[in-house]
Inverse folding.
């Protein structure tokens, strides 16, 4: 299986590589369009700020390429938000793959939302074998609201999308690579899709 991690200088790439290695999988880190297109699975991690991440994607025309992919694709953290239409972070137009608008947590809430939180209302094969209320590790100041594309929820304190799915695009707000055995299981489920 050929696994590619999209390299746009905004990803938590090393942690994801180590998480895959623990599962016995190897991945290539690249921004090369042909490499990405030929992959069996594509992982799109992200940390940082939305507008600068979008600028970095545009440098290699990845903003044009990624929406055309048809293989299983996993966005992680900022990588999930970039798959959406728009973010209130810097009033940024995103990739527009998942029809959801990313919002900022209310001013009264301490941000970033950081630490372990429960996952519930689990749907999709991505969560096969994961029990309701399992914990995952989050670090984010912006969120995707709950919509028809939500496949897992968490709360801070209001419900938000802990995971989204649209066609072959799967996305998780939490860090799979930092979420212990449950995160490893979810990553393995993605590789099994």
């Amino acid at each position: 299986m050929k696994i590619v991690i999209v390299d746009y200088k905004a990803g938590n790439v090393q942690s994801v590589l180590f998480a895959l290695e623990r599962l016995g999988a190897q991945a290539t880190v690249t921004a090369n369009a042909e490499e990405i297109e030929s992959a069996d699975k594509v992982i799109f991690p992200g940390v940082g700020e939305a507008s600068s991440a979008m600028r970095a994607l545009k440098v290699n025309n990845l903003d044009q390429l990624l929406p055309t992919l048809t293989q299983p694709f996993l966005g992680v953290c900022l990588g999930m938000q970039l798959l959406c239409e728009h973010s209130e972070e810097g009033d940024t137009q995103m990739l527009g793959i998942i029809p959801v608008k990313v919002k900022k947590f209310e001013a009264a809430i301490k941000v970033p939302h950081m630490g372990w939180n429960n996952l519930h209302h689990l749907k999709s094969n991505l969560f096969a074998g994961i029990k309701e209320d399992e914990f995952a590790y989050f670090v984010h100041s912006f969120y995707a609201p709950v919509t028809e594309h939500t496949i897992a929820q968490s709360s801070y304190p209001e419900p938000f999308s802990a995971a989204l799915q649209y066609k072959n695009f799967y996305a998780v707000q939490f860090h799979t690579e930092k979420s212990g055995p449950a995160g490893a299981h979810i990553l393995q489920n993605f590789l099994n899709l």
Remarks:
- Residues 24 and 85 are 34 Å apart (CA to CA).
